[in-house]
Amino acid sequence: MPTLSATDELIARIQRLKAERQAVILSHNYQIGEIQDVADFVGDSLELSRMAVEMPAKVIVFCGVHFMAETAAILNPDKTVLLPDLDAGCSMADMITVEQLRALKAEHPGAVVVCYVNTTAAIKAESDYCCTSSNAVRVVEGIPRDREIIFIPDQFLGDHVAKQTGRKLILYNGYCPVHYRIMASDVAAMKAEHPAAEVLVHPECPGEVHELADQVLSTSGMCRAAKASSADELIIATEIGILHRIEKENPDKRVYASCQWCDCSHMRVNTLEKILWSLEDLQHVVRVPEEIRVRAVRALDRMLAVAAS
Ligand code: CIZ
Ligand code: SF4
Fold first, then answer.
1. Closest residue CA from atom 4 of ligand 2
2. Is the peptide bond between 153 and the residue preceding it cis, with omega within 30 degrees of 0?
3. Which atom of ligand 2 lies at the shortest distance from residue 154's CA?
4. Which residues are 43's β-sheet partners?
5. Closest C-alpha residue for ligand 1 atom 1
6. Ligand 1: does its nearest atom lie under 6 Å from the Cβ of 258?
7. 278 lines ligand 1 (CB under 6 A)
8. Which among 65, 116, 269 is the best mutation to test ligand 2's pocket, defined by most ligand atoms within 8 Å of the CB?
9. 304 burial level (CB within 10 Å; 0-12, 13-18, 19+)
10. Tens-digit pLDDT profile for residues 258-286
11. Collapsing DSSP states into helix, strand and coil, what is residue 41?
């Protein structure tokens, strides 16, 4: 009998325990390749939120960052949601506090608050709508034109949505430090080197990078566009974990990251070992206090009612 490698052994133990626990493993598109490969489903946060509701599991091992697991916990109070490492935070989500949002609301009484999914449960509880990068434009389009809109926390996604919808949004100055490192000059140099490549840019990138894009898309939008593209080469401007999926799904295309060092340290803390420990000890349970959950779920239900674009 052939001997199993340590990684194969680890994966076999994860699969056995997953069945025993009636668990599913959900992975964000930015997770390391071996986690994506062991997961039951890989997607963006809108798809993962939907899967967390639809999959008939008792336990959800959420391989992503804290706000994503929290979102799953808000939507599934009867399921156990586990985050393999509690250090998987999000620098953008940490950029706005409830006090800061309340101050903004006090400055603009009557404004509708749209929060990006990259926020804490407490911020979602103070918001009217939640959105992801794949449905932000549609969420804003669905709000009556005579209402003022506060859009938090990502200024670059907010600016993109304002341009796409022709709406004037009240923006906040949050941003993702990983996407902020993606430089327009680097993307321009790559385009010069690969003039036939299609350029796919995430809306969290700075505005000058959007201007160099063929399409500005969420991560799962990028995966769909990569498959549909007639180009042989793709330049991808987002967190580099996504290259694993795009390369796997498009073996005939050459895929270039616009920034080799744009990896998110929060996304990287999850490992196969930590998934196994998470299943063994049912750790770390992500819970949202009921008083916050019931308020946050309204904004999330409105997000789920709007399709991805
Ligand atoms: O919504 C998500 O999953 C995030 C954070 C990025 C994206 O565009 O998929
Ligand atoms: Fe947050 Fe940026 Fe990491 Fe996404 S890539 S989890 S927005 S810090």
1. 90
2. yes
3. 7
4. 28
5. 45
6. no
7. no
8. 65
9. middle
10. 999 999 999 999 999 999 999 999 999 99
11. strand
Return the ligand 2 atom nearest residue 93 CA: 1
DSSP 128: S
Residue 103 Cα distances to 111, 157, 172, angstroms: 12, 21, 12
What pairing do the DSSP bridges indicate for beta strands 169-171 and 254-257? Answer: unpaired
CA–CA distance, 276 with 283 (Å, rounded to integer): 10
DSSP secondary structure, 218-249, as one string: -HHHHHHHHHH---SEEEEES-TTHHHHHHHH
User: Which protein residues are within 6 Å of ligand 2, measured from CB?
Assistant: 65, 90-92, 118, 176, 178, 239, 264, 266-267
pLDDT of residue 294: 98
- Token pair, residue 165, equals 């919808």
Q: Is the Cβ atom of 117 under 6 angstroms away from ligand 1? A: yes
Q: Give the chain's largest Cα–Cα span.
A: 70
Residue 238 CA to ligand 1 centre (angstroms): 10
Q: 120 near 92, Cβ under 8 Å?
A: no
The ligand placed nearest to the CA atom of residue 157 is: 1
- What is the per-residue pLDDT across 100-129, written as a single tens digit (0 to 9) for each? 999 999 999 999 999 999 999 999 999 999
Q: How far is CA 287 from CA 38, 85, 98, 235, 283, in A?
A: 25, 14, 18, 38, 12
Domains located in the chain, CATH noted: 6-90+267-288 (3.40.50.10800), 93-175+291-308 (3.40.50.10800), 182-257 (3.40.50.10800)
Nearest ligand, CA 71: 1
Encoded tokens for 277: 């420990």
pTM of the model: 0.96
Q: How far is the CA of 1 from the centre of ligand 1 (A)?
A: 43
The answer to whether the beta carbons of residues 48 and 68 sit under 8 Å apart is: yes
User: For residue 159, what are the contacts with CB-CB under 8 A and spacing of at least 6?
Assistant: 171, 207
Query: pLDDT per residue over 62-78, tens digit each?
Result: 999 999 999 999 999 99
